[in-house]
Write a sequence for this structure.
């Protein structure tokens, strides 16, 4: 089910494309034994592949493009490394985004811009599945530094590479490399490297309200107060931590700021509160 936040003139809607099933090793520093409810019966932590629809006067922006229509088999070598026997059939399941957009009254041709917070496979899937753009009238924006780091060295059969090279061949890509870039009126992306070199978050400002869409700058709810939890695919875990702490400090205690996360359970927008010297997540 989609969750929408109506601002003054802009609406932000959380949409889900599917889920990834990640073994505990993906979260270095997280003691899953101390949080037994996090793991499902298959021994993995299930996270959504969330995208965000931003609708305003004259623009429809999609932030991130999910896993896409292809389910990704669970790699045998990863199952062995994680001691999962049996392992889930798929490490990532996608395909729900078109239906979620339709439920929100949006057709692929209505999307004017797709902004990719970074170029990992679970964020680019519907940009150009199979190498063909899914949003025929949309420009696809992304952090330029991610191309050489993630796409160029990937093997030809890599899903994200196929998607991004298809988008490039179609002439719809717009790489960005500035500290901030305006996507649409009131919608600005901010460079927040660490998880990947070209990672961006998106800030939506309308009247006296702000919405921050954090991509993978914050990957797990427990990172709110634990600086020891990282993510396996962080390009630079130390830089990712610095970026995350600066972002959370900026958001904490602000009633005028709402946060939308890519991989937290549920689909509600949240605020970062301050309580007894620590930070808390509260539903917006």
């Amino acid at each position: 089910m989609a969750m929408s936040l109506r601002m003054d003139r802009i609406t932000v809607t959380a949409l889900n494309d599917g889920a990834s099933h990640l073994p505990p090793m993906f979260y270095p520093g997280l003691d899953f034994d101390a949080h037994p409810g996090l793991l499902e019966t298959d021994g993995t932590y299930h996270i959504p592949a969330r995208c965000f629809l931003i609708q305003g006067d004259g623009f429809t922006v999609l932030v991130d493009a999910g896993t896409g229509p292809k389910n990704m088999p669970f790699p045998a070598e990863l199952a062995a490394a994680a001691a999962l026997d049996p392992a889930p059939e798929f490490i990532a399941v996608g395909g729900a985004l078109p239906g979620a957009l339709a439920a929100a009254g949006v057709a692929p041709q209505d999307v004017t811009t797709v902004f990719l917070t970074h170029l990992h496979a679970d964020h680019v899937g519907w940009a150009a599945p199979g190498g063909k753009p899914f949003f025929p009238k949309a420009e696809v924006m992304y952090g330029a530094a991610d191309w050489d780091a993630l796409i160029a060295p990937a093997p030809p059969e890599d899903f994200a590479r196929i998607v991004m090279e298809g988008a490039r061949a179609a002439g719809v890509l717009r790489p960005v490399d500035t500290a901030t870039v305006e996507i649409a009126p009131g919608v600005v992306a901010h460079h927040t490297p660490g998880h990947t070199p070209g990672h961006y978050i998106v800030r939506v400002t309308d009247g006296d309200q702000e919405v921050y869409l954090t991509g993978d700058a914050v990957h797990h709810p427990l990172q709110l107060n634990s600086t020891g939890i990282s993510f396996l695919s962080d390009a630079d875990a130390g830089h990712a931590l610095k970026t995350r702490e600066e972002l959370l400090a900026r958001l904490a205690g602000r009633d005028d700021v709402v946060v939308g996360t890519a991989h937290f359970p549920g689909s509600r927008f949240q605020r970062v509160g301050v309580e007894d010297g620590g930070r808390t997540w509260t539903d917006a």
User: Anything to note?
Assistant: The mean pLDDT is 96. The two ends are 16 Å apart (CA to CA). The longest strand covers residues 11-22.
